[in-house]
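Recap from last week: sequence in, structure out.
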Amino acid sequence: MAAVDHFDVVVVGAGISGIGAAYHLKTFCPDRTFTILEGRPQLGGTWDLFRYPGVRSDSDMHTLGYSFKPWKAKKAIADGPAILEYLQETVDENDIGGHIRFNHLVTNASWSTDDATWTVTATRADDGSIETYTCNFLFMCSGYYSYKGGYEPEFAGSESFGGEIIHPQKWPEDLDYAGKKVVIIGSGATAVTLVPAMADTAEHITMLQRSPTYVVTRPSEDAVANNLRKVLPSKLAYEIVRRRNVWRGEMIYGKTRTEPEKIKELILKGVRKELGDDYDVDTHFTPTYNPWDQRMCLVPDSDLFATIRDKKATVVTDFIERFTETGIQLKSGQHLEADIIVTATGLQLVTLGEMDFHVDGEAVDFSDVFTYKGLGYSDVPNLVSSFGYINASWTLRADLTCEYVCRLLNHMTETGTDQCTPRLRPADADMPRRPWIDDFSAGYMQRMMPMMPKQGDRAPWLNTQSYSADKKLFRSGPIADGVMRFTKKARVDATV
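Predicted structure tokens:
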């Protein structure tokens, strides 16, 4: 039987969260051994997987970047390759590369209380072989969507379409859209990125949406950040801008909760300024919901609006009746001619990396557990997962989660304990089972909510989606809070 590698910590995923986890473990838990198991042949997660034209972040890099590594590039709204380069720099500068095992797709994790150990099974993507690892602590950093494919609704007549149908998650490297008519189905971040990125090459782009999304523009370069770096050390300049951007983001989000109509009018006023009074903003850019009831779309340097003004792109708001041989027939009677149809219809969300989990032989149904602080799960020992914010940059929460994990591991070292398990208190037994994320109506979230862990109505069984609240809770809240239970495994000495 092949030897099984054992680590104190196994991290699943080598994207933003996993690389951040490695930095924190090396820096704050140097006594702990760890490895990162990554299912793909490269690091980067989202920023390596998505290859469609113009792929970029819709969060500024002063908050999407790590707290410990300043973003120094001029553009604060960065494209995918620049973000990937930043992640590779982080790995190289902190000697993380040797800890990553690529092509290791983790499929199963089983916990044994007797051994206080997770047994993790991974399939090698390069040769199909199975490898087994054991660890005392499992840190899930695999993101929140399926890497197998995006959400692709069925469209009547799609088999009859004579051109190409492409989902952005599986963008062909050799796609030639020069001089072609392209219809992009969708109104989210991917769609508003693709339109300006393809507009100069295609004959014409049509963004076909069932309903509008709030769209705001801002400069791709942060003048304050770029000027501060000229007079201050880069780390200090970065921290100042990061704090400003966090404060600004939380203030705006708060206003959308307390004064939604005021924020709505400000957003629509900006769109009218971009497109003119004659443009039908009510139809194409005015959602039926309030701002931040779904994620808003950011367009840098007004690029989407510029392509519309220049007649290179058109927004159509309508329902699809069916695909035809030459395009899409709409319910209004209009027919959209197309050589290529891009289905920017969203992601398929998953719970914890599309893996099977067992605790002492019992399968874990994550839809039946409560979330602990948005990172742990009731009655699931020695496990934390990283899940970012829906109303702010992913990395803000990933950084805090890593800090918490290191505090937790160091507490276990100090107390000589082997197992940490969040358990409901008797007073928690009657808690209502609230959705994992409240007050967010986006379809990709709503489709998955029944399968996600639940929130309660009291701390620590909350997933707050608030950076300020989490910062206090994760950094200074007590580790031993009466809910996270710490135990030692039974020590049995071998006898002869």
